[in-house]
Every structure is written in structure tokens, then in C-alpha cells.
Write a structure and sequence with these properties.
- The chain is an alpha/beta fold.
- About 35% of the residues lie in helices and about 20% in strands.
- It contains 15 helices and 17 strands.
- The chain has helices at about 1-5, 25-45, 50-65, 95-100, 100-105, 110-120, 125-135, 190-200, 215-220, 220-225, 240-255, 265-270, 300-305, 325-345, 355-360, and strands spanning about 50, 75-80, 85-90, 140, 160-165, 180-185, 205-210, 230-235, 255-260, 285-290, 310-315, 315-320, 350-355, 370-375, 380-385, 390-395, 410.
- The strands form 5 sheets. Strands 5-13-10-9-6-7-8 form a 7-stranded mixed beta sheet, with helices on both faces. A 3-stranded antiparallel beta sheet has the order 2-3-4, with helices on both faces. The protein has a 3-stranded antiparallel beta sheet with strand order 14-15-16, with no helix packed on it.
- Strand 14 and strand 15 (about 380-385) form a beta hairpin.
- It is globular and about 55 Å long.
- The relative contact order is 0.20.
Length: about 400
């Protein structure tokens, strides 16, 4: 029933159709992750209690957008039927649209989406995704629907969406109170992680390129403002020697570094994690679409979620789950990963993938509440649980609170 009340169910399914129940176990798992975050942050800093529904679905609450089946809530991603299944493609930037003729190998007389949808039926999902990725367009195969709700519980080693490797010795005195977090990331997942660490007591410095500011400013101004409450901002010219020195000094001073760039971007500046010295206890978070082992694959929140199998399912195939859900889930998991690393003394590089995060939530164990029915009620929908004789209205996505409330830092 918590899925129905979260706002996520209202964002999952076809426009005007029945909202979809199938991702409910993933939302239950989010509650477990949120509890773990509160526990660990309370041990190494201020206890951070998140409003899971507002944190994950709040952007849609601000925008007022709703579910749209195989078109994402934000509109930039679509699931296309292929000869052997489904492929998800994101056209979020002008260059993505410009690449469509090259993906298809011919000029497109129709619009980009129409041309892709028509051609996709002649391709395998893998071939279409690979072709798009070669041209820098986010795309992936949507995994087949699992035959059952079985999955590994989050916390089993094989299900964790991050890996940690040693870059320095540990320091048992490190904590999140008054530590310096330098956030080089953009959009949603990385800035959310930084926000949560800030609520735990860290000082957060947000670094933006003078030539390429954070695209989140234009995508969702309300979300951008909420993500960056309480942070310090630095605009740095990465092209200038003075700017590169300023960035190097910031990284040298940082207790935690958050970055979401391709490895070559920092390597060109001489600031990749393998190129700089790390003092004991430092934590370096690398948060990317597919992980450091697959640095050329690009991803946004909706296609990363679909690539990990975190989708809704109805009678005729997959639909998008929530709104770019891999982004906020990755941000929350990243904050938990950093806090856990700090608890152990730090000195590690954390490699966290949005696709792996989505897969971990998609593998959440099925619920044992018995059958549920989704029925129309007035101008909306209700979920009826026969086992507990309980009815829950399917609620719209909430809007996050701007300020922490008393009783621990809240998000």
C-alpha cells in the first residue's frame, strides 16, 4: 500500500490507464535503505531521515506531469518495440536528435522518434542500443520480465550497486561533521548525495564549469534549488591554468569528492583519482551510468532504470517506473555508501552505477501481502488489499519540504 501512497504508482502506467502495481517491492526496499542511511549517518554525523516519497518523486510533484506509458514522465526517453523485445532510447540533447540519421544509417523523412520507432521493429534490441551508444546516445536493452518476484535482498554482496577499492589508508577519526565535500557532479544523483551529506553535517562546495554550468538549472529549477540548499558555489574556468590550480586545491582539501564524469575528463585535467595524492580517510565517489569499467556508455535516469529492469509491467509490455527513478535512488544509495565508508575509516574509491542501482531495486524480494486489486474510484484509482481488508487511494507525487524539520536532519 505504501507504493500507492508514495506518488510513484501514479507515475507508472499508461496515460489515462490503470496505474501499475508491479514496482511495489522496489519501494519497500527503499524504506530499508532509508532506515540504513538514518542509522549510519547518526553514527558519523547528524542523523538524516529522508521522506522517501518526496525525495524520489518530488520532481514530478513540482512539474505536475503524470505517467505516460512507454514515454517517460519528462518526455526525453521512450521504450521502442524491437524485433526481439524492447529497447529504451533517450533523446535529451540536440546532439542526440542530430545523431538519429547516423544511428539508422539513412536520412529520416519523418521526425526522429517516428523514424526510430519504425526502424526498431527491424532491429534486435541489442543492436539498436549498441548502435546508439556508439554515437553517444543513451540507449539500452530492457531486460525481459522476470518469471517471479524472486530477487536478492539488498545488502547481499552480489546485489550492492557499488564497489569500493582502496586508495589510501583509513583514519578512524573521520566523520561527516564539518568535513569538506567537493561536489563536481551535475543534474540529480550526485547533487542529491551531496545534499544528504550536507544534512549529516558536512560542508559542501558545489563546483561548476564556467563554460558548462550544471544542466539541472534548466531542467528543473525547483529541484535544482532544493538539491543545492545550504551549499557553497564555486565557478571555475577549467580551461585556464588558474582555474585548474583552483580545482586542484579544492580536491586536495576535500575529505569527500563526488564526481560523475567520464574518467578521461578528469584525466585531461591531471585530477583523476589515480593521479592525485590521497590523505588517510578520504572518500572518492564516482557516480556514473554504467560504472568505471564501462566509461563510454552514457545514461540518464529513465534509461538507466529501464536498463536495470526497474520498470512497470502491464499486459502488453514494460512501462516507465516513476520519473527518472535511477537518479534519486542512486543519490540515496551513494550517500549511504559514503557514510558507510566514513564509518569504516574511509580511504576508498566508491564506484557506483545508476544501472546497477536500478537492478538492485528491481531485484527486491516480492511482497507476501496477497493479491491486490486496482479499481477506479471517482476521478482516480484505489488499491484494495483483500488480505488486510484495506483500501488505499493512489496519491499524486508529493512536493519536498524546503527546510529540515526538528528531530534530526530531514530531507
Amino acid at each position: 500500500m505504501s507504493w500507492a501512497s508514495s506518488g510513484g504508482m501514479a507515475l507508472t502506467g499508461h496515460r489515462g490507464g490503470v496505474p501499475v502495481m508491479s514496482p511495489a517491492p522496489a519501494y519497500e526496499l527503499l524504506g530499508t535503505v532509508a532506515d540504513a542511511l538514518a542509522l549510519v549517518t547518526g553514527q558519523v554525523g547528524e542523523r538524516v531521515v529522508i521522506d522517501a516519497a518526496a525525495t524520489v518523486f518530488g520532481r514530478a510533484g513540482w512539474s505536475g506531469r503524470g505517467r505516460d506509458g512507454r514515454r517517460s514522465v519528462g518526455g526525453a526517453s521512450r521504450m521502442l518495440r524491437t524485433a526481439d523485445g524492447w529497447c529504451v532510447v533517450t533523446l535529451a540533447r540536440p546532439d542526440d536528435f542530430d545523431a538519429v540519421p547516423a544511428i539508422l544509417g539513412s536520412a529520416t523523412g519523418a521526425g526522429a522518434w517516428t523514424a526510430l520507432a519504425d526502424a526498431a521493429r527491424q532491429w534486435s534490441a541489442g543492436a539498436l542500443a549498441e548502435r546508439a551508444q556508439l554515437l553517444g546516445v543513451p540507449a539500452a536493452v530492457v531486460p525481459a520480465r522476470p518469471s517471479s518476484g524472486l530477487g536478492l535482498p539488498f545488502g547481499a554482496r552480489s546485489a550492492l550497486p557499488w564497489r569500493a577499492s582502496r586508495i589510501a589508508s583509513s583514519d578512524p577519526t573521520v566523520n561527516l561533521r564539518d568535513c569538506l565535500v567537493v561536489d563536481l557532479s551535475a543534474l540529480w544523483a550526485g547533487p542529491l548525495c551531496a545534499r544528504l551529506l550536507g544534512l549529516a553535517g558536512a560542508r559542501v562546495v558545489k563546483v561548476e564549469s564556467a563554460h558548462r554550468p550544471d544542466g539541472g538549472r534548466a531542467v528543473g529549477p525547483e529541484l535544482f534549488g532544493w538539491l543545492h540548499e545550504g551549499k557553497e558555489f564555486r565557478t571555475v574556468d577549467f580551461h585556464a591554468a588558474a582555474g585548474r590550480r583552483e580545482l586542484a586545491d579544492l580536491i586536495a582539501a576535500a575529505d569527500v569528492v563526488i564526481e560523475a564524469s567520464r574518467p578521461r575528463a578528469l584525466r585531461q585535467l591531471g585530477l583523476a583519482p589515480e593521479e592525485v595524492a590521497h590523505r588517510p580517510g578520504r572518500v572518492w565517489l564516482s557516480l556514473t551510468g554504467y560504472g568505471r569499467a564501462d566509461p563510454l556508455r552514457v545514461a540518464f535516469g529513465d534509461d538507466a532504470a529501464a536498463a536495470g529492469g526497474l520498470v512497470g509491467w502491464d499486459v502488453d509490455g514494460p512501462v516507465f517506473c516513476g520519473d527518472a527513478i535511477a537518479d534519486p535512488l542512486s543519490g540515496i544509495c551513494a550517500a549511504l555508501a559514503v557514510a558507510t565508508a566514513v564509518q569504516a575509516g574511509g580511504g576508498v574509491l566508491i564506484d557506483l552505477s545508476m544501472r546497477a542501482t536500478a537492478a538492485a531495486f528491481a531485484a527486491a524480494p516480492g511482497l507476501d501481502h496477497g493479491p491486490h486489486r486496482v479499481v477506479p474510484h471517482g476521478d482516480g484509482w484505489n488499491v484494495e488489499c483483500t488480505a488486510y481488508e484495506h483500501t488505499q487511494r493512489v496519491l499524486p507525487p508529493p512536493i519536498p519540504e524546503s527546510a529540515p524539520r526538528a528531530g534530526g536532519a530531514r530531507c
